[in-house]
Automatic annotation (TrEMBL):
It comes from the Eukaryota. It comes from Rehmannia glutinosa (Chinese foxglove). The keyword NAD applies. Belongs to the LDH/MDH superfamily. MDH type 1 family. Its EC number is 1.1.1.37. This is Malate dehydrogenase. It catalyses: (S)-malate + NAD(+) = oxaloacetate + NADH + H(+). Homodimer. It holds the Pfam family Ldh_1_C. The keyword S-adenosyl-L-methionine does not apply. Keywords: NAD, Oxidoreductase, Tricarboxylic acid cycle.
């Protein structure tokens, strides 16, 4: 039995375990925690955040395998100091002092499931983690990835309200993967490099609530009705496409880690005070009559500082918006009721 095996075995028996901290002081930068860091998204996300020069301290928390992932990531010769935290008794240490908390904790879909089918398990996980955030880092910006995002964000908001720490600017549901997919699929149709394409995706993060605004693509372009139908459907079903291809082995993890880092980096640049950082996210909103909605937001020193209106929609998008709102309303209510019941 090697040293690592002994240490991991001991760690799994000893909830007080804390991976040894490097004897180096953290450089200036942001302190970031990933909750669910040993998972399919969590691991590549941890690796990419360790590569981010804006991060000085990276806390990796999970209920399993946190020591192994931490040992592995900590050998990367990049700036951030990495610390691992295993299990509920170490949640508070993982969260204390954090500027940004990214949450990919929870179960993923299998073929045939909707994101809402994850509610029963993931709602409780998100509730517990957000209670920890309210207690230990109430001023942190939260990037919530765990599905169903349309319900988990309202759950988080209710937990923070109950604790008296709710700041709507600091709670952001991550819908970046929808934008990443939309950029990729639209670029394919237009014959462009996806890095040159920007597609706003609004609404929420499930099925028809994912509403790409193809009339607002940059660079300006137009689509035939067939292209619009194909692209809208492909973007809405992007998650299911991956779930089916993985055939029971989970959902999008690598593209999600990429999208999560793209979004987290935008949040950190906003916190640093960079101007003009605009990304789509599912946030508290007055853009429609619903209390939460995904749209473009300006990220700044305190989080989502400005939520932008949708801009002019075409008839196809107006119809899509009505469908999206109907489903979103029920998902939001389900999340709110989970805490208020
Ligand atoms: N917002 C989005 O665009 C996307 C969201 N997701 C969602 O992200 C979530 C995670 O997906 P994967 O990483 O593929 O799943 P996974 O099962 O590979 O990893 C989840 C991790 O969460 C951990 N975990 C479970 N309960 C926990 C708790 N109470 N505290 C801390 N960690 C806990 C597990 O131990 C595991 O390591 C799923 O809910 C999935 O649906 C996935 C892709 C895109
Ligand atoms: O589809 C899923 O279950 C995971 C997800 O949210 C996505 O890939 O967009």
């Amino acid at each position: 039995m090697g040293f690592c095996t002994i240490l991991c075995f001991w760690a799994s028996k000893n909830q007080e375990f804390r991976w040894p901290i490097a004897g180096r002081k953290a450089a200036p930068g942001f302190k970031v925690a990933i909750l669910g860091a040993a998972g399919g998204i969590g691991q590549p996300l941890a690796m990419l955040m360790k590569m981010n020069p804006l991060v000085s301290v990276l806390h990796l928390y999970d209920v399993v395998n946190a020591p192994g992932v931490t040992a592995d990531i900590s050998h990367m010769d990049t700036g951030a100091v990495v610390r691992g935290f295993l299990g509920q008794p170490q949640l508070e240490s993982a969260l204390t002092g954090m500027d940004l908390v990214i949450i990919p904790a929870g179960v993923p879909r299998k073929p045939g499931m909707t994101r809402d089918d994850l509610f029963n398990i993931n709602a409780g996980i998100v509730k517990t983690l957000c209670e920890g955030i309210a207690k230990c880092c109430p001023n942190a910006v939260v990037n919530l990835i765990s599905n169903p995002v349309n319900s988990t964000v309202p759950i988080a908001a209710e937990v923070f309200k109950k604790a008296g720490t709710y700041d709507p600017k600091k709670l952001l549901g991550v819908t970046m993967l929808d934008v990443v997919r939309a950029n990729t699929f639209v670029a394919e149709v237009l014959g462009l490099d996806p890095r040159e394409v920007n597609v706003p995706v609004v609404g929420g993060h499930a099925g028809v609530t994912i509403l790409p605004l193809l009339s607002q693509v940059k660079p300006a372009c137009s689509f035939t009705p067939e292209e619009t139908e194909y692209l809208t459907k492909r973007i809405q079903d992007g998650g299911t496409e991956v779930v089916q291809a993985k055939a029971g082995a989970g959902s999008a993890t690598l593209s999600m880690a990429y999208a999560a880092v793209k979004f987290a980096d935008a949040c950190l640049r906003g916190l640093r005070g960079d101007a003009g950082i605009v990304e789509c996210a599912f946030v508290a909103s007055q853009v429609t009559e619903l209390p939460f909605f995904a749209s473009k937001v300006r990220l700044g020193r305190v989080g989502a500082e400005e939520v932008y209106q949708l801009g002019p929609l075409n008839e196809y998008e107006r119809v899509g918006l009505e469908k999206a709102k109907k489903e979103l309303e029920a998902s939001i209510q389900k999340g709110v009721s989970f805490i208020r019941k």
